[in-house]
TrEMBL record:
GO terms for molecular function: alpha-1,6-mannosyltransferase activity. The chain crosses the membrane at residues 37-57. Belongs to the glycosyltransferase 34 family. It comes from the Eukaryota. InterPro entries: Glyco_trans_34, Nucleotide-diphossugar_trans. One of its GO terms (cellular component) is mannan polymerase complex. Keywords: Glycosyltransferase, Membrane, Transferase, Transmembrane, Transmembrane helix. It comes from Lasiodiplodia hormozganensis. This is Alpha-1,2-galactosyltransferase. Pfam families: Glyco_transf_34. GO terms for biological process: protein N-linked glycosylation. Signal peptide: none annotated.
Amino acid sequence: MHFAFPPRKTSRPPPYVAAANARSQGSFLTRRMARQLAIYGLIALGFLYIVKTWFFAGPAPEYIPAGTPPVVVVTTFDSRLSDSFKEKIRLNRETYAAKHGYATFFANASDYDVGNNPITWAKIPSMRHAMTAFPHSTYFFYLDINSLVMNQDLSIEQHIMQKSRLEQLMIVGLPVVPPDSVIKTFAHISGDNVDFVLTQDTDNLCQNSFIIRRGDWAKYFLDAWFDPLYRSYNFQRAEGHALEHIVQWHGTVLAKLALVPQRIMNAYTRAEEGGTDAMYQEGDFIAAFPDCNDEKKNTCEDDMAPWWGVSQKSSDSSS
């Protein structure tokens, strides 16, 4: 039977067409969602990278010019010393520094304004001065005129400041000011976080021989130590007692401090102020003559006279 007109079209597609359209649409949606997820993922990764860079990344490696001495040995002279004595002290430091590629910095106490205070305060601005003169050096080793380098072979890094070595040496849980301060050295401190190393004898912190690691903390510490308030307080032992006050009552200083055994960098040549375990023995790094530079005594040149030969012999044998 023939119809005059074609069959009327229905709006409902045949089943096979609907299935094909569904598959095509599903594929399109899947691809679209995949692109959106990829875009969102890239945005999230970029955001995380920015957050990590801004808030969690460590400081950029510091540029240190080639030839920068890793250590600067600092000594401060005063006008009471004879030229011959100053020359011997200078030679002692320069010989040691040359062996290890270090620099030396010699200052005159008269270059710094300490007012009417004891001239020994000048050691503090002389250290700041040295940091300005050698802005890229890592360690600054202050050695007073009452001390001699005896073992020229011992480097600051290997003998004291290397992380594992320092952690082995540092004395923890020790009264920071002897003999019975209630404030004690921290028990849990990494060698990498130590910026200030010194010793103590039976009565005091010893500031004739100490090491400071350069950085913002070092500048803050030296500025705090030299604060006019402390200089005007008239401490009995001047900058020595000021230092003891700071390390006991300022946690930001104590947290960066390490005390090491006295013979490591400050062996005494007589036992008036140190125990028998602090007395100099052959091979020790530093020989110290406590209080020989006291304003009332000023006997360093005479006290050191028998030791010059030993010190020079050490430098000759190590060269």
